[in-house]
Amino acid sequence: MPAKETFRHAIVLPMVNDIHQTLVSFLSTSERGTWRADEQVASTPYVLHFRRGKWRRAWFGLGSTFQPGLCDIDSKGFNVPETRPMKLQITIRPSPDEVRLSLLFSVFSLAAYGREDHRRYVSYWADRVSQELGDLSEYLRTCYRLPEPPRCEYGNC
What we know:
Layout: E1 3-14, H1 19-28, E2 36-37, E3 47-52, E4 55-57, E5 66-68, E6 86-94, E7 98-109, H2 115-143, E8 151-153
Antiparallel strand pairs: 1-7, 1-8, 2-3, 3-6, 4-5, 6-7
């Protein structure tokens, strides 16, 4: 059974138009790894599901569901972060004055880690998620011509 670490964050911005298209545009072109719609989970107008990284079909490659796969390894023997199996759920909550985006990142690993290695692993992925949230926040600022990036909650972005 793969291990899963989750990271929850929120971005709050003024009421804007076309937020779905803006999110899909950013996620499908992210420099930190391309996200694609997760066809295993139905998205709704207010909850979007994405995945990225290496996934493999269950049941010896014949099943219709996907399981986390192994990451690619670079020439120095390190995992390539863009191939790490990840899922992202975005909940969009509009209100009269603002739009709240609740983001739930899930990072999967087939490896077992000792206590200290696990701390480093979680810290590494917390930083990568925060960096990507910072990129998203700046992208939203640019797209909607906001005076400053939207504020992030529950994380350092």
